[in-house]
Amino acid sequence: MPARVTTRRGVKASSASTAPARAARGRGRERSQGTQHERFVEIQRARLLAAAVRAVDELGYPDTSVADITSRARVSRRTFYELFADREECLATVVEDILGLLVAELAAAGLDGLAWRDRVRGGLLAILVFLDREPVLARVLVVQALRGGPRVLERREAVLARLAGVVDEGRLLSVRGEKCTPLTAEGLVGAAFSIVYARLLRGERRPLTSLVGELMGMIVLPYQGASAARREQLRPSPAPATRSARSGRGSAEGVDDPLDGVSMRLTYRTARVLEGIEEHPGSSNREAGERAGISDPGQVSKLLARLERLGLLAKTGPGRVKGEPNAWALTAKGEGVARSIRMHTPADDESCAGGPLGASLFTDRGDLPSALEEEICL
User: Fold this and answer.
1) Topology classification of domain 87-248
2) Cα separations (Å) of 206 from 131, 155, 202, 211?
3) What is the pLDDT of residues 226-269, one digit of tens each?
4) What pTM was estimated for this model as a whole?
């Protein structure tokens, strides 16, 4: 007969029957802990990638070092090497993720089913609008990537080949076009790329979208003749893209540093404290510490006081004035950091590779790398 235990209310319960419930709670805690670990790693990875974008734009691809990236990200060198094999892998990931954003722009342009000229024009416009809206990403992708390693250059060639494949469809539309060869499309795409490269290298203020008519005329000419090319040149150019506050800084959605503007080094416990107070406004020191897994009251107090000095937390209760516990809430600045933390949380346990910057984790999702474990224990 199974042993019986007595609860606090004096109600007897079978230890055998309560064991599954305890096991379920344990599994729930493990899943929560795993998600929080992944979230911390995700944020550190996003910060490194955002810092790599800034470093490459400021220093140039060949001259950007691991130290340049880690210093801008405020992340340790050891953590960098836990997340990336070397500098080249990090910078190649930057280029891959910017290309991912650009592919998303093309997918959102609704080009399927359009006639060839409209499809080419719509795709060209979507690319130039993106490059105008995100000037830092444009310089990294178009100018600096040319100086990248084999992986980056191979990816660039694949993208240009894909674009050339779309342009090459013009050969099927007329007798004139049939005289062209696939090399014609390669040359046209290469010429358009070179023109955009030169504008970005010189830092011209004129928006790239102003080139749509001339570039379309150049592309259409060998396939459909001078009259069609002239019509494309005379089509009105779109209005310049309006920059948001984010894109004005050269940051695309998913590319910015989750702690931009906050002079602190993120730790796992910091993230958990902010998340806990966001979910439970008015938390006391003890409650905030329990949710973050910090048992030492002194450590909790020091961390909360530091976050208050940084402008991320504010006291909303009477606190020590009346001998009551503190009641903490996020400030507007703290809410922004908490939103960034949520943004870098994996949606599920499947791989997020191919998403925006910071949206892909290392393959092994089991234990945290050693350097990250050290940061968690700070």
Assistant:
1) Tetracycline Repressor; domain 2 (1.10.357)
2) 12, 28, 11, 9
3) 999 999 999 886 654 444 433 433 444 445 555 666 666 666 67
4) 0.64
